Amino acid sequence: MTDEQSAGTGSPSEQRPMTRRERREREQAAELARRAQQVRADASEDGVATTPEQTTQTAQAYNKAEGGTQTDEPAPMTRRQRWAALRAASAADEDLSGNAPAPVPATEHASEPDHDRAEPEHNTSQPTHYEADQNQDLGDLDPLPQDGRQYPGFDAEESDHDHADDDEDEELEALGYLTVADGSGKYTVVNEEKAAERAKRRRRRYLVLAASFVVFVGLLAVVGIGLRQLIPGTNADYEGPGGEPVTFTVNPGEGPIVIGDRLVEEDIVASTGAFTDALDEAQSVQDIQPGDYEMKRQMSASEAADRLLGIGDPGVNYVAVNSGTRIDAVYESIADATQYSVEEVEEAATDPTAYGLPEQAESLEGYIATGEYRFDVDASPEEILQLMIEPTMEEFDRLGITDEDDQFDLVTIASILQAEARTDDFQTVSGIIRNRLDPSNPETAGYLQIDATVIYGLGTQSLQFTAEDREDASNEYNTYAHRGLPPGPIGSPSLEALDAAAEPEDNDYYYWVTVNIETGETKFAATLEEHNENVDEYRQYCQDNPEMCGGGSNDDPSAPSTDGESVDNGAQ
Prior knowledge:
By secondary structure, this protein is mostly helical. It is 43% helix and 8% strand. The strands form 4 sheets. The protein has a two-stranded antiparallel sheet with strand order 1-2. Helix 7 crosses helix 8 and helix 13 packs across helix 17 (495-502). It is elongated and about 150 Å long.
């Protein structure tokens, strides 16, 4: 037996005292055993299977994480600390053995460690450089490795626990993820089965919510319709013909519901529902026409419906006259709005002087003011025509034009302006007409040469006419063949046109042409040469925009005549 052997087998009384290093190693071994027992207990509580090697490594990691052996009783570790220690244990195994232990199947539990098995040797001279961060951020995770590594000995499904003290892991687990680690770092492992189950539940929840919303909206609609019939006041109605008289105006474009709401606001009917029901029951083929109606406060819905439909008491008729409308169209509008025929209206207009027009007026053309008119349904044709002429006469008074002949010329010029120019150009074109009417002018020699007058004399609405039409002197309204103004107005002018005719712009122009139909841009010229340049611009526009130029005034719609014809003079 060697000296070394005899030194190690002597009796306790003969053994030498332990060195400080040996005592420290013994204390570390005792602490390691205690830690290993705690690791096994914790792993069993969490349902995690561990091998003896993992248990020992984890216990070692605890000691290293806490900076060595503690002689005092350590404080109980939190779950965060235990998980950190388990991760550190994996790193320790990588350093000590160079190989990660094989994972334990999730369905099996490692057997209890063999106590007869020798503890693994440790190279105490090898430095250890790792630290278990007990407060590491579990939310900042690296992506899952391409080889799909998992933490040895832990199954993602078995490790899916709800940790109250780990908010980051809890958020990941709620989405079907698990944070694990091996010797090379932390990873996120997808629990595919759990994630799929959660996604399925989420989709099912959304579908249920959507279906519930649709059903809820449908129920609201049904309940709303039912309440209209059941709740008192929804279809409330007054009884009797009503009381205080009131004038009610129906505006153009208003439908039954809008009219009903306004009737309720003015306390004419009790409810919109009762009014619309009364309209349905009336079964009238005629719609409610715009105009003023004599109604009564708190009248029954049926009475109100009959009054507005013309079934009950007399109401008010409505006629609108647009700018440029010819007298024949005015007569037709009156006939459409009343019980009179076109012939009856024309007969009422056979004597223009009866309405204050001069002797030279052959008809009421030009004297019918543009605008909207409302009158009693029993008004005579004469009363209706007089109502439409009054605004023109009032405008003459405002302008201070009292002579009937001057009034007639003014209406004629205004009607030409209305047909040939834009509102913004009324005064400029009015000055050009005055210049052309001067027989001594060097450009037109007193000829107006305006297409709109020729077209009126032809009795058509088309902008096109032939060269023969332009030379036809039998057309009294042909201002190419006859000097001066035409025999009379060619349509109903607006009040703005009347004002421009009375106050023309002082200029040296004799020609105008619209060079852009879309924008209405108009150019003016003092000579025919300048005018022809503007006409060329108009022709180029028509070549570039053929859809905007629907034709002109003669065989070549764009060509001006040699005697000073204007091309498409102004925007309609």
